[in-house]
Amino acid sequence: MVRQVGGHARRAPGELEAEVLAALWRAGKPVGAAEVKDSLDGDLAYTTVVTILSRLHEKGVAVRDKQGRSFLYSPVDDEAGLAARRMRKVLDNEPDRVGVLASFVSHLSEADEKLLRQLLHDNETIG
Length: 127
What we know:
The chain is α+β, with helices and mostly antiparallel strands and 127 residues long. Helices cover 58% and strands 16% of the residues. The protein has six helices and four strands, in the order ββαααββααα. The strands form two sheets. Strands 1-2 form a two-stranded antiparallel sheet. The chain has a two-stranded antiparallel ribbon with strand order 3-4. Strand 3 (62-67) and strand 4 form a beta hairpin. The longest helix has 17 residues, at 110-126. The radius of gyration is 19 Å and the shape is elongated. The N and C termini lie far apart (43 Å).
């Protein structure tokens, strides 16, 4: 979502990171900042894209490999893996882990609860 601030269009916090990450997923291979910039809508500065890619790397969401004088970036996880990583991070930062999990499970839809039970069962038989 783009909003106007002082006569200039501004993205919502985290939106640009999400756009850059989506570009990495679409690429399906390690890509450089220039290729990411070219795949995004708008007229972002190359340095802005490099900054966002560096932030994603620092957060552990993207990996980078040195290629000549620059880096090629790729995502660590797919979208589902990233969502799971965020959920684990929230859970890890809560002192009442049991309470958080109990509350989460108690608010699942019947279909999601059934799916979770099946996934847990499948995981038990594999492990």
